[in-house]
Amino acid sequence: MTTKRNDWRATVGQMTRMGLRYLNGRRLRTTLTTLSIVFGVALIFAINLALPSMMDAFKQSMSSISGADIRFTSTSGVSFTPESVLPQVSGVAHVQAVTGILSRQFSIPTVENGALGSAAQIQLIGIDATSATAVRQFAMSEGRFLQADDSGAAVFPAGIADFAPELKIGTVFPLITAGGLKLYTVVGFLAEAGSPSAPEIYIPLKDAQAAFNQPGLINTIEVSIGAGADREAVTAAVQAALGDGFQLAADTNGADVVGSMEVGFAIFDLLGVLALFLGAFLIFNTFRTVILERRHDLAMLRAIGATQRQITVMIVIESLLQGAIGTAVGLVLGYLMVVGLVGVIGSMWQTYFHLPAIQLQANPGAFVIAIVLGMLTALLAGYWPARAAGRTSPLDALRPTTTASVERAARWNLIAGGGLMLVSVLMLVAGAKTAAGGAMLFLIGMMIAAPGLVIPAARLFSPLLTLWFAREGDLARSNLVRQPGRAAITGSTLMIGLAVLVLAAALVSAFTGLLENLAGRSFSSDILLTPQSVGIYSGVIGADDSLATRLRALPSVAAVGTMRYAPSTVNSEPVQVLGIDPNEYPKVATFDFPQGDAATAYSELGSGRTAFITSIAQSTLGVNVGDEMVLQSAEGPQTYRVVGVANDILTFKVAVVFISQTNMAADFHKSEDILLMANLAPGADKQAALTDVQDIVKDYPQFTAQLTGEYRQTIVDLSASAMMFFYILALLIIIPAAMGLLNTLTINILERTREIGVVRAVGGSQKQVRRMVTAEALLLGIFGSAMGVLTGVAISYGFIGAFGAIGWTMPFAFPLMGIIAAVVVGVLLALFASILPARSAAKLDIIRALQYE
Amino acid sequence: MAILRTESLTKTYGSPDKPIYAVNELNLSVDEGEFVAIMGPSGSGKSTVLYLIGGLERPTSGKVWLRDSDISTLNDDALSRLRRESLGFVFQFFNLIPVLSAAENVAMPLILDGVPRPEALKLANEALTRVGLADRSSHRPAELSGGQQQRAALARALVAKPALILADEPTGNLDSRSSDEVVQMLRQTADDLHQTIILVTHDPRVAAYADRIVFLKDGKIVDDNRLKGQGNADQIREQLTKVAFS
Fold it and tell me: I need a surface site. Which of A96, A333, A599, B104 has the fewest CB within 10 A?
């Protein structure tokens, strides 16, 4: 007697085995179908693996080493006067000692300043020697610590020897400050090793205040608490004494940068999800084809007693296997991508952002997300075809589908798909918020409508075909129309590939247009002085007004405009606050004003607490022109009124609040220029003027002076190479589309073996059979291209519109080049995919073909 | 004792007001261990009768009794179970799964029924031995000749020890030597295992091996000839011609 188990569990092992063998039997198709899962998983895995590691590297660089018990900074990150806070803190019970510190981490230009050896960035810490030594212990290994009356003295941690072994007691070294290079003398070395990435340099508080151009200010309060006191209770009491404007110093520095990095990574994550969506569609398509191909096998299994559910489980297992293979390969590829990214971008990361090396860490979350998404995609894509396969009647194999039911189904597809497309068009034109949804809906609507479009499209395009294929054209058309479902699947696959191509072209032209427009307007100056890093200013040391004054003194310079920086928050959202002079700035730079006009906006910026915000700030903060918002400043919360929305090339992708330099000095205590632009007097020689400027900049090695035109070109070129990404994405999606075409043509020929035999038997030549298959492929290619172009235009319109919702308003340019490229690629792909099937059809042995089942 | 009985079995196609009768009020009874050949001209409904008996097709009216149960009322899952437990099919096109070995193909109905794989494979190998393919058990269908494939399909039909084997033109795609081999094997199965077999064929030489030949025309039985294995191909051919032109 045979033993039996639960009926689905018993079969799973066997179904897995069969699935693997089917997949293995069609290795090329399996590979190409799995490719998009691989791509999607790799992208998502890479991002989620790299992101925390990069964030860590970033945060590590931002946090400083301290021996104090409790440290507080202002919530906004701005500096403040010690008199306003230190007495309150020292009054708190169990607080033993309090000191005020002004410290900042910044990058140093390695080329200009070899004084600190290989250190790429340093942390300059200004301390009041008397009170600081009461708060923490400074154990010395050599020399002495700072004293109350020191000036121009510096103390290093022992670890500096790793960067600059030549530093000894008594060594005099130059250091960049806001007032230009200043000389310091080494007076001692601490016993502790210090930061491995950004060595601390302890200097007297007054020197630091001069170096940062922040006289009388501090940015950190350090507290030591009495032995045995409850640390948490004391911390809470200090917090209460300081009020809302202060917080425990943790990883708060650089929150604005971390925020914008997260946005960037979210975009990549989105691309990964898009790739998986396409992967799902391709698996769906392949499985529908597979089920057509195998309907004899499936019907036979039903005949010998397989239940509907067993058949469904079998196909689902097969799609899961494919998902598992794709996910596994994707994880490996993703890991390699991260290693490559760390290798290539990592060096840029270190030199451009001056951040410590990225240490990759095992991140279980990244694995889980990538695996779950990869498998889920395969499961969802395989489920519907599997359900359909389960419904295979044992007799389906022996009976052809009647044309009537096919046509009826096709008509329903047309109605349902057409309805969806109609709704999607309404969503597309309704505005930025619904545009992306409309784009996706249009794609889905087109996919659903496709079977109903096959017959009209074949009618529409076949006259075109008869130009080249006078005799075979009609036969090809009727062959295509016979299986509208299959033609629709293939057409849809091609459609997605080509639509993405159109989208890529449209996005590239829109972005390039936006960037060139912004680049052209933003830099109307002749000469530009940029700090070590542009866009991220928290690690930058600028210059006091001595630099601008010296530039203005040059006879060839007509006007100088500067930009100043302070970090802040609005409703806990980190923002960059940039200070500009409303009178000088318009002479050297131009904003793009999507809302408000330049003249009024600038005049309003000159009076009272008013601000411009970037489009991104507008959408993240949810404020509009005329609204008021509260900025956290050194003087506590301050209410600013928005008088304009303004973007330029450096700020269009970050949340920035522009205020006047007067307000910045008053509320944020900042008067350090971090970006300078100069206009030349009419008729001045640009090269000669640049040389003069570069002479001055030698004293401020944190700046690089160059002609604005060159800098603009660099930015545009950089962006153009970044745009290649879109084309790569499109290419990756076109490969499986080509595979879909090849599949369909091959199956069509297998199915019609006997008919081809008849055509040959009644006198059709090999060439005619070949031309018949080629004509069919061409018709399919034209059909897919037509759908791809329509969908491509719709989704590019939607996606470009959707960027408006996050503040990047770009005009929609009709992607004519993309359309031409899509049609050419579609037709070429069809012809290419038809080569093998056409040849094998032509070479069929007539007798055997006639005997074929 | 009748293992199979049909009661006014009817199958029509087309619109209800203008029906085309594939099977018309058919009453057929098959005894246990009987080897029955169904013959008839093209369109006589012989394959449809087989599909109705096998639960692959649902009757328009009438009943099919397999032993004591009326299979025409079963739902899809119950029919599936019936097919894998009580029926064995042999088709004209061998319908083996190309990616599975001969033994795995034969084991399929058992595996679908929840029999553990090692046991299923053991039984499959026994069935293959019975059809003379013991040395071919690990071969894939593409590595077998047409006759061998059909013998593997026969082994698959036998493996679950079904009450009834249904064979639809099992020799239709074979040369005369392989065709003889397969039908002799069917005859031997009927003799050795007392296996009930219903076979649809248009080949008098194949039909001659049966115990009984049922002639169909327009979905009705026009002649029922008990040969007891003593059939003569020429006589059968004559009779078939007579039926066709009557």
Answer: A599
Q: What is the pLDDT of residue A640?
A: 93
Cα dihedral: A489, A494, A495, A496 (round 10) = 100
Q: Write the DSSP assignment of A334-391 as a string of letters.
A: HHHHHHHHHHHHHHHHHHHS--PPP-----HHHHHHHHHHHHHHHHHHHHHHHHHHHT
Structure tokens at A413: 């597809």
Could you give the CA distance from residue B243 to residue A431 in angstroms, rounded to a whole number? 76
Among chain A residues, the shortest Cα distance to B100 is held by: A18
* Structure token pair of residue A69: 């018990």
Angle between helices A295-303 and A255-293 (to 10 degrees): 70
CA–CA separation, A316 and A517 (whole Å): 51
The span from the CA of A256 to the CA of A657, in Å, is: 12
What is the DSSP code (8-state) at residue A668?
I
Strand-pair partners of A106? A122
**Are the C-beta atoms of residues A663 and A615 closer than 8 Å to each other?**
no
Closest CA to A801 of A268, A270, A263, A428: A428
| Position A611 pLDDT exceeds 70 | yes
Is pLDDT of A53 > 80? no
Q: How, if at all, do strands A704-707 and A673-680 pair?
A: unpaired
Neighbour tally for A144: CB within 10 Å: 14
pLDDT in tens, A692-735: 998 998 888 888 888 888 887 877 777 777 677 677 767 766 76
Cα separations in angstroms, A610 against A557, A616, A631, A636? 30, 18, 11, 16
- Chain B CB contacts of A14 under 8 Å are 104, 108, 111, 117
Top-confidence range, A297-301, A319-323, A813-817: A319-323
Q: Is the CB of B78 inside 8 Å of chain A's CB atoms?
A: no
Q: Which of A8-22, A339-353, A627-641, A800-814 has the highest mean pLDDT?
A: A627-641
Separation between Cα atoms, residue B180 and residue A826, nearest integer Å: 54
Confirm if A208 and A131 have CB atoms less than 8 A apart.
no
Q: What is the ipTM of this complex?
A: 0.81
* CB of A531 closer than 8 Å to CB of A702: yes
* A112-to-A354, A704, B19 alpha-carbon distances in Å: 15, 11, 98
Give B-chain residues touching A391 at CB under 8 angstroms: none
Identify residue A826 by its one-letter amino acid code: G
Question: pLDDT of A19-37, one tens digit each?
Answer: 888 888 777 667 767 776 7
Q: Which residues of B touch A297 (CB under 8 A)?
A: 95, 97-98
User: What count of CB pairs under 8 Å joins A to B?
Assistant: 98
Q: Which of A507, A477, A494 is nearest to A817 (CA)?
A: A507
Q: Are B216 and B225 in contact (CB under 8 A)?
A: no
CB distance B53 to B197 below 8 Å = no
d(CA B141, CA A831): 34
B136-145 burial, b at 16+ Cβ within 10 Å, e below that, comes to bbebbbeebe
Backbone angles phi, psi at B29, to 5 degrees: -130, 130
Put simply, the answer to whether A11 touches B81 (Cβ < 8 Å) is no
- For residue A704, give the 3-state DSSP assignment: strand
Q: Which residue of B has its CA nearest to A395?
A: B56
Q: How far apart are CA A614 and CA A657, in angstroms?
A: 7
Domains annotated for chain B, with CATH where assigned, are 2-245 (3.40.50.300)
Report d(CA A539, CA A533) in Å as an integer.
8
What is the sign of the dihedral through the CA atoms of A541, A546, A549 and A555?
negative
Q: Which of A506, A416, A494, A457 is nearest to A819 (CA)?
A: A506
Share of chain A above pLDDT 70, in %: 83
Place of tokens 């698959």: B156
**Which chain B residues in 109-148 lie under 8 Å from chain A, judged by CB atoms?**
109-117, 119, 123
Spatial neighbors of B129 by CB under 8 A, at least 6 apart, are: none
